[in-house]
Design brief:
globular, about 240 residues, 2 domains, mainly beta, eleven-stranded antiparallel sheet, Thiol Ester Dehydrase, Chain A, 11 strands
Length: about 240
């Protein structure tokens, strides 16, 4: 089986913001769709694992935008797995436009969780040892976002998790976190995102209340999501 998996998509206006910039949500959604399709082809997709009380959980992701994708473009998303760790699965992504220009580079870290015990499961359940590719589209380790929660952060908004935020695991869809950030950040027309990353620290469920604490300095911002005064996610965005 091919080590690099590809999916083709046609972008619609819903993938863009009001300034025709590709939305971080759209990029993460494309990543998720392609990863899910690849996992299904390897027989480690949602249904196969759910029958064993196991689900995929995203721990961390990051992407870098090299070139904005045109509205209504036909694009190609590539993904591949890296050699398995004991509890971690690293998966990379690339998005290409119709002229085969590399537009987005991304990487992610996943784990398997038993949804009944909420414990992380060793990777013996879903090994991909024979279907990996070692090339790193974003070189280096995918480290946690470093920050200090101090008075430089202020509450920018609150969000109540809605039905429309949920995925088929019943928790808040990983891509939806990016919408929270973009709403509070509200970049100007001439400000274009160049990188976006998130650490997912605690799952969020229907009707959970999240306080969104923002720190913005020059061309970079960090957003902390807190539930009952406990940090459940951290995102960082850089723009030019």
């Amino acid at each position: 089986m091919a080590k690099i998996y590809e999916c083709n998509f046609r972008l619609t206006t819903g993938f863009y913001d009001h300034y025709d910039r590709i939305r971080p949500y759209a990029i993460l959604d494309l990543f998720q769709e392609t990863a899910g399709s690849h996992a299904e082809s390897l027989k480690i997709g949602f249904k196969a694992l759910y029958d064993q009380d196991i689900i995929w959980v995203l721990a961390r992701n990051k992407f870098i935008i090299e070139k904005n994708l045109s509205v209504s473009a036909n694009i190609k998303v590539k993904t591949w797995s890296h050699p398995n760790g004991r509890f971690e699965f690293i998966r990379d992504f690339e998005i290409y436009d119709e002229k085969n220009n590399l537009c987005v580079r991304g990487t992610s870290k996943w784990c398997l969780v038993n949804f009944k015990t909420m414990r992380i499961v060793p990777n013996t359940i879903a090994r991909t040892d024979n279907d990996y590719y070692e090339y790193e589209t974003i070189p280096g380790p995918l480290n946690k976002i470093e920050f200090v929660k101090d008075n430089s952060f202020s509450v920018a908004d609150t969000h109540i998790v809605q039905v429309s935020d949920l995925d088929h695991n019943g928790h808040m869809n990983n891509a939806r976190y990016a919408e929270l950030f973009c709403n509070v950040l509200n970049l100007k027309q001439n400000e274009e995102i160049v990188s976006f990353e998130t650490d997912y620290l605690q799952q969020l469920f229907l009707h959970d209340k999240i306080d969104l604490c923002l720190k913005k300095e020059q061309n970079e911002a960090i957003l902390i999501g807190e539930k009952d005064h406990k940090i459940c996610f951290v995102s960082r965005c850089k723009w030019k």
